[in-house]
Design goal:
Layout: E1 7-13, E2 18-21, E3 27-40, E4 47-59, H1 60-69, E5 75-88, E6 95-108, E7 127-129
Parallel strand pairs: 4-6
Antiparallel strand pairs: 1-3, 1-5, 2-3, 3-4, 5-6, 6-7
């Protein structure tokens, strides 16, 4: 039976990435990403915002890209998988559980502030991904699925 372990996050970075290199030379970057949801309290009627913090780990080239472009407060899109672990707290001796997101894709959202272009110019930031995206084919126009329909609409 097939299984799926996939996470998609769209949120804001809580801190600048921490980059380190393993003895093998592999780059590793860690960031925290905040996601928020809003709901209305049933009793008081006021809006309540619930923020969740996620630990995200990038490896190899994606870690280097994150270290260069991701900054505190910047909105990002992350795809990855969940990894569960545990450790023993040195001060209390209590075993604690952890949940990390091992990122496989990263997309910078928002404008180009802090990327060399003047603020307010340009559309979105470049896409960065662990797997190269398929390049669109040039020359042949894209089929919309409506090319074979008649223009005589009865209403």
């Amino acid at each position: 039976m097939a299984s799926v372990n996939k996470v998609i996050l769209v949120g804001n970075c809580g801190r600048d990435p921490e980059i380190r290199y393993l003895p093998s030379g592999q780059a590793v970057a860690n960031v925290s990403v905040a996601t928020s949801s809003r709901r209305k309290d049933r009793t008081s009627g006021e809006m309540i915002e619930d923020t969740q913090w996620h630990r995200v780990t990038f490896y190899d080239r994606l870690a280097e890209i994150a270290g260069e472009y991701v900054k505190k407060g910047r909105p990002i899109y992350v795809e990855g998988r969940l990894k569960y672990g545990s450790y023993t707290d040195k001060t209390t001796g209590v075993e604690k559980n952890t949940v990390d997101i091992i990122a496989t894709e990263l997309q910078l959202l928002g404008g180009r502030e802090g990327m060399g272009a003047p603020a307010g110019e340009g559309g979105g930031a470049p896409q960065r991904s662990a797997a190269p995206a398929a390049a669109p084919q040039r020359g042949a126009p894209a089929k919309s699925g409506f090319d074979d329909m008649d223009d005589d609409i009865p209403f």
